[in-house]
Request: fold
Amino acid sequence: MTRHMDIPWWRDAVVYEIYVRSFADASGDGVGDLAGIRERLPYLRDLGVDAVWLTPFYPSPMADGGYDVADYRGVDPLFGTLADFDALVADAHALGLRVLVDVVPNHSSSEHPWFQAALRGEGRDRYIFRDRPNNWQSTFSGPAWTQVDDGSWYLHLFAPEQPDFNWRNPEVREEFLDILRFWLDKGVDGFRIDVAMGLFKAEDLPDVRDQSFMSKSPVWGQPEVHDVYRDWRALLDTYPDERMAVGEVWTDTLEDLALYVRPDELHQSFNFAWLQAPWSATAFRKVIDDTVATVPFATWVLSNHDVVRHRTRYGTADPGTGMARARAALLATLALPGSAYLYQGEELGLPEVENLPPEARQDPVFKRSKGELPGRDGCRVPIPWSARGDSYGFSPEGVKPWLPQPDEFAELSVARQTGDPGSMLEFYRRALACRRELARTVPYGLEWLESSEDVLVFARGPLVCAINCGTEPAPLPPHESVLLSSGPVGGSLPPDTAVWLRRAVS
Ligand code: GLC
Reply:
């Protein structure tokens, strides 16, 4: 089969999100770090992903797990040094893995030198200070404004330790171009842009009637943000080897999302509609149709460090159902045109850890809502590498990880699953290997094949993917051979099961 060399690498890439604090701890302080990731790169190569996205590892007081950046050009000592970063990029590239880093442009840490200067009354225009607050609420609960000593207020759409930048100040714009250059010169292959629909707020900061997350509101998605991404795209295009950017863009509609991926803006944007869809063929079909119709280069995401893990989302009452559906959902995700973003631990079938003790929880969402909202710690529990030990191999022996791991992590550990053909991990490895063979050889578009309401069946050239979201077995579509299935398949496709088939095409 021919390989299309002119297709950019990111179009069909499988990108693996590493939540740095929870992947692997080499230093022995209970928190994941860059050296830990470096040691585990062969695992990722063998898993069969194309790239990794590292969540923030920059110097930070960790008020929001590192999404409160105090220095955009460094590495927090908790995670290592810049030399560790360089070594990690060099090793990843040597193994054929690309590296994306997170850029956090909406807000800095309150410990950032610019904000510290602003508190002293210097350069306040880099942030959003006002004499009086408006009625905006923080995404993490409570008001979006905090008062400082001289009586004025500053805006923070997230925690008070995360003051929002004033993107109408050209100095902010220049600074971020320079930050991007810094990491591009270090050889990163691209960026994941945090809260990419934020940055600009309506100029007069009007009160809002509805505080919900809406893309068309004075708070988010102002048209000026697109000029920033045009500048960023122009910068990325001056570098060799197709450096790219993917936006964390939450919008109400896929039409709004499409604005961010116009040809001179971001290369990709996360498709959260896929992750928000319930286990339903009708819901999945609608997201697929809308995505393919509106977005030139699609992405597919089932989980990340901000949402309930999909195994748990798909099977709240029964873990077996959640596991079966998670397997089936992977085959759908990997068969669709575009790239897929995986979240660490989904290849092990990790569940959301729902019963973390309140004193262990660290997410500002939990703290600021006074425990009313559980927050996101449940999807951030450190990875179990081995079946035994104080941290299941996450940290060196004798060290407790920063969040406690449940007993069931022993069974779900990498060591236990490796070599077991029925395990989630081996299933991911097979699926990723098979996709690698297929992704660039099948046509980009998809065609729906006939099926009942509860079953999704689509084809891309010779590849047919069928997913049974119903409660009854469904007939298998016509095929020459079965490439892969998420569970046992006989003459029919059982409920909560997906299959990849090869069909004859003339
Ligand atoms: C993004 C990150 C999330 C963080 C927030 C504020 O949504 O993914 O983890 O809390 O931005 O930076």
